[in-house]
Design brief:
Structural class of chain B: mainly beta
Number of strands of chain B: 11
CATH topology of chain B: Immunoglobulin-like
Largest sheet of chain B: 6 strands, mixed
Largest sheet of chain A: 7 strands, mixed
Oligomer: heterodimer
Shape of chain B: globular
Number of strands of chain A: 11
Distance between the termini of chain B: 40 Å
CATH superfamily of chain B: Immunoglobulins
CATH architecture of chain A: Sandwich
Helix content of chain A: under 10%
Order of helices and strands of chain B: EEEEEEEEEEE
Largest interface: A-B, 28 and 26 residues
Strand content of chain A: over 45%
Distance between the termini of chain A: 37 Å
Number of domains of chain B: 1
CATH architecture of chain B: Sandwich
Structural class of chain A: mainly beta
Helix content of chain B: under 10%
CATH superfamily of chain A: Immunoglobulins
Number of helices of chain A: 0
Radius of gyration of chain A: 13 Å
CATH topology of chain A: Immunoglobulin-like
Chain lengths: 114, 113
């Protein structure tokens, strides 16, 4: 398994600002993912964070709104840009130690946009 | 796009009752996973089912994968308040970047003492 931490655990932000969420893993992993979980709902994959190259975004998510970095095999960031109240969600990082392996989830970042 | 429909969305039962949660799709998945999520935490993997028709047991929880690998069920026997949480099924498929999960809508379970 893998131990995953996310910062911040929660934040309240003003409309129009941006927030960067960090995801740190205690071991090197092949795959890192970012998900969004809107209030009372299930998880939706935003993108796959690729080490050393641009992230792979799912339909409905774009790099300008959700820029992602992955500088190494243990760390990734997700930025929520130009926030609006509709961006209020829990943002979750997950990792898969190897391709095709089980995914392990971080505790999530609860974002509220006023 | 692979979709997973999960039912029921909400379930409130008394301690000691049995329940079944269903996860259905028109797509075939290479495997299917069940997670439980508690407030303020990320989902925690309960089980992965891989073979069509497979049945796995985890104490009072029984997981079944359909013969065609398009559907799955989770049965809880004699539910306890500690079983309260959000249960999520997730189909395992592949995109260009590798393995990916498609989540069902979730079942929010409340077990009353």
């Amino acid at each position: 398994s893998a131990v995953i931490s996310q910062k911040p655990s929660r934040d309240i932000c003003q409309r129009g600002t941006s927030l960067t969420i960090q995801c740190q893993v205690d071991s090197q992993v092949t795959m890192m993912f970012w998900y969004r979980q809107q209030p009372g709902q299930s998880l939706t994959l935003i993108a796959t964070a690729n080490q050393g190259s641009e992230a792979t975004y799912e339909s409905g998510f774009v790099i300008d709104k959700f820029p992602i970095s992955r500088p190494n095999l243990t760390f990734s960031t997700l930025t929520v840009s130009n926030m609006s109240p509709e961006d209020s969600s829990i943002y979750l990082c997950s990792v898969a130690p190897r391709l095709g392996n089980t995914q392990y989830f971080g505790p999530g970042t609860r974002l509220t946009v006023l | 796009t692979q979709l997973l429909e999960q039912s029921p969305q909400f379930l409130s039962i008394q301690e000691g009752e049995n329940l079944t949660v269903y996860c259905n799709s028109s797509s075939v998945f290479s495997s299917l996973q069940w997670y439980r999520q508690e407030p303020g935490e990320g989902p925690v993997l309960l089980v992965t089912v891989v073979t069509g028709g497979e049945v796995k047991k985890l104490k009072r929880l029984t997981f079944q994968f359909g013969d065609a690998r398009k559907d799955s069920s989770l049965h809880i026997t004699a539910a306890q308040p500690g079983d309260t949480g959000l249960y999520l099924c997730a189909g395992v498929g592949h995109n260009n970047a590798g393995n990916m999960l498609t989540f069902g809508g979730g079942t929010r379970l409340m077990v009353k003492p």
